[in-house]
Amino acid sequence: xxxxxxxxxLAGRVALITGAGRGxxxxxxxxMAGSGAHVILNxxxxxxxxxxxxxxxxxxxxxxxxxxxxxxxxxxxxAFDTIRETHGCLDILVNNVGAxxxxxxxxxxxxxxxSLIETNLVAGFSLAREAARLMLxxxxxxxxxxxxxxxxxxxxxxxxxxxxxxxxxxMVRALAAEYGPYGITSNAIAPGGFATEANAAMLSDPQxxxxxxxxxxxxxxxxxxxxxxxxxxxxxxxxxxxxxxxLTVDGGLTVKM
Length: 257
Hints:
Rossmann fold; globular
């Protein structure tokens, strides 16, 4: 490996990826494992996570699982205690998990609003806090949050989700200022339209699918694996002087008029 390429290596790092059971989270986990990290896969389906971890290990890479609901504060704290006991550290957090409910605000109950905020925003703070506890003693770490282009631009019928993503963007920047003096960077990735399971309903509607594809500068939806490069960059030494940044990965959707 050329010396410069080594700056992208994650060898010896421990990375927790939430929502790693499918979609973008899974692609990020696979890429980080392939770059040398020991990846800890989070999700709520332990059996699925175990199968995925086994497939990663079958490739000679390192993986384990941490099945818990990020909205369950007790389970979350216990999971980080286990990471400390098992690995002694955490180098990378990828806060990827998120819920989506596309409908007009008038159709939301108060409980539905609170539930979406708890999963998408409050859990992000809890995950970052517990990750920071493990990163502060080593004065190094990478906090990576998956937001959305919905944190930059608005779409009718998506007010609650968009608001949570705006909140995460604020969190990312605030934590960059708070933890920068301790060698911990805080950045975000804002995906555009990716062909994932979460977007299956949109992809199955020809009119909607075509609308989002043609709106992007590249004229298509993103492939899930195309998120991996941005995550590896922000997790590696190659991004050591970047913090408080939101890296948009949307095929140019937010820049095309």
